[in-house]
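In response to reviewer comment 3 from the previous cycle, which asked for concrete evidence that the modeling workflow produces usable outputs, we include below a single protein chain processed end to end. The sequence was submitted unchanged, and the resulting structure tokens are shown without manual editing.
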Amino acid sequence: MQKFIGTGVALVTPFKDDLTVDVDALIKLVNFNIENGTNYLVINGTTGESGTISEEEKLLIIDVIVKANNKRVPLVLGVGGNNTLSVVKELQTRDLSEMDGILSVAPYYSKPTQEGFYQHYKAISEASKLPIILYNVPGRTAKNMEPATTLRLAKDFSNIVAVKEAGNNQQQYNTLLKDKPKDFLIISGDDDLALGVALAGGSGVISVIGQAFPKEFSTMINHGLQGNNKEGYDIHFKMMDVVDYIFEENNPEGIKTVLQELDICSNNVRLPLVKASAELENKIANYVANF
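The workflow returned the following structure tokens.
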């Protein structure tokens, strides 16, 4: 699973002022990332506002990214939810021929037991022809998938190849890194912890801020993967403030404001999200101007 080592980015979905998908901006974002060192792209994740994207728009977004990418880097598609049967049906019916893997978020809202998590992903594993990256993000799903469950899945299903761990819990990362099967990938979903996880034996990151500063962030992660502590932390410290800023109110409001300052896309978001406050916009603008 070398294709999922390094820096992946969870792409935003750019919107025009009328909140339709901004195809030109999406192409610009894809090219900007590929040309500046991003290793793979993640489509239709939380950062892409998947919860407010229609099926027709999802097909459009996939088509635009596939064509813009032109097979330059691997693509991962977000396919997840709290209706296991619906997720299985999507895996069985969607054209995934251009995808290299799927990212499947832990069931949200339902708050399953650990056995419920296991059975959910067992069904997904049996339905998927592609490698699966588990996605544990308890801050959004309201329930933590514990390391024992993740490791059980990793050992039982050969197509479950990685976990994107986003609990902002260093001890949980350490447990996973200590006990994981040899070829199972621990991918950071926390931009603020990503370097430390890479230095400790992780396989990289699926990042939010990385799509705005792909050259710097991917260089930092590469230093982590190579054990270059000082060089990695030199970049980490430079980016600490902006990582805090983009999650200060909500994601993707913050990252879209950064991308607007970089003239890549607007900071339009769909309700129930709202644009970043004027105060946050000013902090981000000052950071980008002095980066």
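The longest helix spans residues 229-246. We consider this sufficient to address the reviewer's concern, and the full set will be provided in the supplementary archive.
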